[in-house]
Amino acid sequence: MSDGLTVPFALTAGLSGALHTNQLIIVSGLAEIAAGCISMGLGGFLAGESEVDHYNTALKQEYSEIETVPELELKEVEEALTAIGVEPDLSKAVALQISGNKDNWANFMMQMELKLEKPVENRARMSALTIAASYLVGGFIPLFPYFITNTNQSGLYLSCTVTIFALMVFGFLKSKFTGQNLITGTLKVASIGIIAAAAAFLLAKAVS
Amino acid sequence: MSDGLTVPFALTAGLSGALHTNQLIIVSGLAEIAAGCISMGLGGFLAGESEVDHYNTALKQEYSEIETVPELELKEVEEALTAIGVEPDLSKAVALQISGNKDNWANFMMQMELKLEKPVENRARMSALTIAASYLVGGFIPLFPYFITNTNQSGLYLSCTVTIFALMVFGFLKSKFTGQNLITGTLKVASIGIIAAAAAFLLAKAVS
Known about the structure:
The structure is a homodimer.
Chain A: H1 2-16, H2 22-68, H3 70-83, H4 88-98, H5 102-113, H6 123-148, H7 152-178, H8 182-207
């Protein structure tokens, strides 16, 4: 969402410093939103898929090690326990008990040795849809002012106003959700958008 | 890196279908790279910072619970152990031993109850620099052809050639690194770029 607000905002703001009709700014903005939406959405899908693959490969590996080198795996459970302050004798007893059930044993190794958490079901698809939809919604906020204004300058002013407002709302909600300081959280998200837009604007003006 | 290759590639390809001089394609491409680089780089910085914040807040909370409601926390250690197949008596003995050291106790809760891993030092700064640098390098690959060609069409052809090649190299290396199937991994990364560019091209052509 944050990239969806920021990148099309910065791009269209940048172009408004170099182009003199809203038409081309709109074409660029739409092309950017389509590109970002697909690239990040499908990229998120691949990342989610890799995560599931990685987890499954590691789990299979643990099960196979439990079959082929059980003494070694038992030793690893003991070591994971002594590492967190359990005395050797007790660690041995716990390891023996966990090893009574192969699923528990493999799960323990995944959590304590590899620190891997089971990815949630449909992770890849949910990631892809969330990212693509957020980018799409985010991207239209900075872009729509160029549709309803006649000059690049009035488009830029309106786009700055609505986008900075939207970035602040988003930053505020995000800070609230993640438990961060509301004021600094809000300002940080808005600043990124403003810095990115200013850089794109100055760069586009300089080279055109 | 993948977004840095794909988004500026798709945007410039899209614009090459709507604009007739390389000059404006280059201005848009540069503005997009600047915007994406800053938005994603600083966004990565904030994400890294949130992660560290989140970890520290949770750790502080665990230490405070250990002080204020130790019986409850002891019970939680026991439950985490019985959940992975350790019998109640043994779980109690282990919990008592772990609780002898507050650091071990808090660490155990962080790993087993909250499943939080300590973020590496300088995570936020490293994230920001890696993302920004990758986006910058990635972005110039699809853009430079428009600098060295005279027409939007020859720019587009050269950009497609070098970018699809770069996407395949990147997809191959990424698959190798993450242990995925090399052929499907390579094709997936390249496909995202091609789909995003085709969508941006068709959209830009349709609206201009």
